């Protein structure tokens, strides 16, 4: 595979250009990568102000605020990689509360579940005008039927994945994701982030 080295600032700028060039009344953009090992939230955050300067209303949403309750996530233990892969994220809630309303009424729920307190956030819906962008960061987002207008995948080499994932027990979940889903083939943009200070864009 060939990659083009790029600075984080230039990466944010190029992604902003690409998002702003997309058609459609409202857009859903995903930034996908292994939690704790890739800086998905930081990259999504870096796109907010540049998009707003382009006149795009922008809402940040994190998949970690759409996890299932602890009783469901930890039914098979707190360190089960298969559960991490299939049972942690509430895909139905993301569709129902974020992605479908984004394309319909425009009233999006920014968060649903506080995983630390294990209770509903009781957040209010946010009305988004035409031209708005929802920036969603999280892990294991691709290949699950979620409809994104642009998907960015932050890719780690196998060695970097094992080295940088903070919870070693979760590594098999990401390896399974790579093998079964091949997120790099589904994403619109793939960024190698073995060293987050020196990302590199995949050149197809």
From TrEMBL:
It comes from Amycolatopsis rifamycinica. This is Uridine kinase. InterPro entries: P-loop_NTPase (IPR027417). Keywords: Kinase, Transferase. GO terms for molecular function: kinase activity. It comes from the Bacteria.
